[in-house]
């Protein structure tokens, strides 16, 4: 840096001033370590005072009138007086000076060229410094020394001293010492700026951390010391004045999570990766808080050791929410499984229901059944349907349900014979999870599923006695408990029971509870066997032919009259179900448009009931069988009258008396003869 020196005149010139000047310069040099020590010792708050008093000391030592530090901002021509000292009788200068306006020549030397401007006499200033000269003169300056103080390549401050009362010369050692002192001031001011910026930065971080409800920390893995913000200390359950170390922090962490935390820290430091760990921290009051710490490895300088810097947040409510969600998901899954199970049950009911055909009957015997169905349907009363197997008891139950005000909901069926006795109770009343070995989930029983609907208990005679007791209670009080649960469940269920056994005999034999029998037998319906309603056979046969024809893509339009007669004459121990099966088999084997029944060995009518019938019943059955055998032909050769050895008119009158309506006969067109 070039120093502009005007001609020497002042006392400080060592050559001209001799010993006194030399001593002053020596004293100034000695002041450097003293000022330096003072500044090192001072805090950021008292730095200004120290600079001010040091300036005063320097100016007074040199017996000058005025001096100070001017702050130069980048790109701005105005300079600000940051620290100044004025002798009592010297004019004070304003706080900010537009250097480029008042001292354009000096400004160029100082700020642009970074050159010291030392003026001993204003007259020595060059012509281009006319404005500067004028400004100096206005301020009463006789001699002036201005030294640019740089940080990096930029002029940061200027240190200025003025001689007002007389002219001064500025020897090089003085300039050097003054520059050194100025640099001490400026570097202290710069350090303070950096420190204050850091403080502001830290405060901003702290505010951000507090508003994000996180704590900041820094772990020194070598010493284990942890620097932490106040909010981090709160999270870690430490007092504000307590020193946190990794070891005393680990002591506070839940024992089960300690190794995870240590592993995470070690891994992050070793691999220079980010760390993420969730762990529990039991509080003094016993409450367990969940914390999440996320860190990043940071190295202070290329060779310095690594630090883990990070944030910690309290995630207890998130964890609680997760736990709740997890529980809810489990509950949803459980309910979904339950629903699927219930759906399967209901679908199987629907499936069964869809397989049912419309209730078909033309016989007088079934008219009574229909009447009973109509009577009882809307009452909600318990119905007991009895009849041989395959007579259509389930269809009767369906019809009752369909005609009742419960028809909006599906009828639920339990086949007591199809379920193992060990399971029937849980199927009926449901079970709690773990009610018995293998009960892996909670399950609703069919009683609950049939709420506000109808529960059809098929094959009720097969129900185990223990279950009968529970059923009786459910029927009487409308309440029951799931297996394994003490909680009573109340439902509104209409019961329809069916059996192909003689339930009264079962009671007599001690296989069925008498009290339950009477509770079920409120409205009994007896479905007659098919052999007692032969008139139903032809329409049923045609119905099944059409049904199977559609399914198999076959069209049968003819059934030989003798085949139909054989069907009507057969005793049908399996009733309608058996008839249906026979038709199905015949459909499969038939060629062409005729239903071929020649291969079927339909045995002649035989009594099925071991019970003794009345004479009238025997006579009725015998006449029906004969009519069936002749395919409805009454009179003439091969007619029923001839077979029975009766005059046709006698047969007709017997038929009227016994109320034998022969629809099969109608089908054959013999009605006119009746
Ligand atoms: N009147 C009818 N019209 C049409 N199909 C009938 C009729 N009666 C019974 N069926 C048919 O006969 C078969 C047996 O009927 P259902 O199951 O109702 O008899 P069930 O008396 O309940 O038999 P089980 O005592 O063996 O339970 C079914 O395929 C049914 O569709």
Describe this structure in words.
This protein is of the alpha/beta class. It has 4 domains: 3-195, Beta-Lactamase, CATH 3.30.450; 212-314, Beta-Lactamase (2-Layer Sandwich), CATH 3.30.450.20; 356-528, P-loop containing nucleotide triphosphate hydrolases (Rossmann fold); 609-674, Orthogonal Bundle (Arc Repressor Mutant, subunit A), CATH 1.10.10. It has 25 helices and 24 strands. A hairpin with a 6-residue loop joins strand 12 (288-299) and strand 13 (306-314). Helix 12 packs parallel to helix 13 and helix 19 (537-552) packs across helix 21. The radius of gyration is 57 Å and the shape is rod-shaped. 34% of the residues are buried. The model is unreliable at 1-16, 347-357 and 663-674 (pLDDT under 50). The protein binds adenosine-5'-triphosphate. The site of adenosine-5'-triphosphate has 20 residues, from helix 13 and helix 21. It comes from Desulfoprunum benzoelyticum.
The appropriate CATH architecture of the largest domain is: 2-Layer Sandwich
Widest β-sheet, arrangement of strands? 1-5-6-7-2-3-4
What is the CATH third-level topology name of the largest domain?
Answer: Beta-Lactamase
Classification by helices and strands: alpha/beta
